[in-house]
Amino acid sequence: MVSAAFLKRAQALLRIRNQLARECLAELLAVFVLILITLSGSAQTVTSSGTKGNLLTSYLSGALAVMVAIHMAGGVSGAHLNPAFSLALCLLAQFPWWKFPIFLTVQTLGAFLSAGAVYALYYDAIQYYGNGTLAVSGPRETASIFATYPADYLSLQNGFLDQVMGTGLLVAGVLAIGDPRNNSVPRGLEPVAVALLVFSIELSMGSNCGCPINPARDLGPRLFTYVAGWGSEVFRWVRGRARAAPPR
User: What is the pTM of this model?
Assistant: First the structure.
């Protein structure tokens, strides 16, 4: 059997003492789990043609993923999970500006890696559903599993407004939930409150753009689809796609 002394030495060697490194790893892991659950919910809906998922299950998986991710990283990094939230904290002088680009990079990387994990998990389903083609538009497109795309009717200006309002509401709601001057949420239930906030935004603002409300959540997986074979079309604003992306 492994001795207790050996285990203690191993734990000491593996322990990360640098606070910034701990925060970055926490954000990386939490965003990875957040996007893993969120994109898997979309993949299940898309590749089953709606027989094993729908709009509601996609919304719910994304909201519950937020709850899990906050529990994973809240005690280490504060579970920002979102560059927009990190930026808001910088503007409020609650987070140092020099950390912002670091968190932005880590959050985007976590989303990118998670998209790769979802692609591996649903590889056979994606290939079968798309008849071996990785399409961004058309009746058998699969790019919307990973990133969000505008509905057919949406203009660029309205799409910008949609994301500003949705993301702004998310940030304002999270700040309100965490403000000690407001009616406090019972200790330990803050992640549940944030998940319900995300769920409400998805239910009310998901039809235009799929409701990503998180730059890293959209950019990381979109970059992955670009390098994985969907091509540069994933970065184009194309009106008249076959359908809007599943919600997030």
Answer: 0.90
